[in-house]
Amino acid sequence: TWVNALLELVDADQLPALFGGRCLCDGHDQVSCMRSTKGPWADPAVMAMVEESGFANVLTPGGAKLLHERRQAAAEAAEEAEAAEAASEAQVTAEEGAITPRGGKAPPVSEDLDEDEGRDSVSPNLFVSAHLPLRSRSAVVQSELDKAEVHRAQQDSNAIHAEYNELERVHMTTLAEWVAEFNQLVEDIGWSVIERAQGYYDSRSVWQQVVQEFAKQQ
């Protein structure tokens, strides 16, 4: 049900009893129980929209859709920034690992190193590592390793971001369905009926929790 789906996102003691939680603030402060460290109330975008549009407007299908669009735009902007930063780091790594300038001239070789190498000529082709000094070959290998590491890190980042987007989509879909169901319930039976039945459902929720705790101990 929508109550179980909501309780997977918000702590029960920080969710109004009207919505299936255990908070009994009696409506004096609509957000007094919505200080959870997980779920939508911990998201700055959600709280900013609550302050901007009002709590009642957020808990509507239109409000849920607008919130989803805002959070999706923020996620896309963050993804573009991460991609640009990764590309910049890869370029810096490649430049630091290069052993010849763009003109194709090889760097000067010290006399000691030249003697140790038997005064072998240094090939301008960076890919012919057999003709490069030992230090140059090490630089080429290190540069390739750095590029591979950056590529793997970018793949991991993309996978994590994709997983986050999927969880976000499921959450917003659940929230929109819950809001629609709640509004339909209010339209069908009226708000006054829901208020009168609140005490019954609160006691039933507590009873179910006691039964579940007893079952866990058996």
Automatic annotation (TrEMBL):
Cite the residue spans of the region called Disordered. 79-122
Instruction: Tell me the SUPFAM superfamilies matching this sequence.
Output: CRAL/TRIO domain
InterPro entries tied to this protein: CRAL-TRIO_dom_sf, PI/PC_transfer
Name the source's superkingdom.
Answer: Eukaryota
> Residue ranges under compositional bias (Low complexity)?
84-96
What's the protein here called? CRAL-TRIO domain-containing protein
**What organism is this sequence from?**
Polarella glacialis (Dinoflagellate)
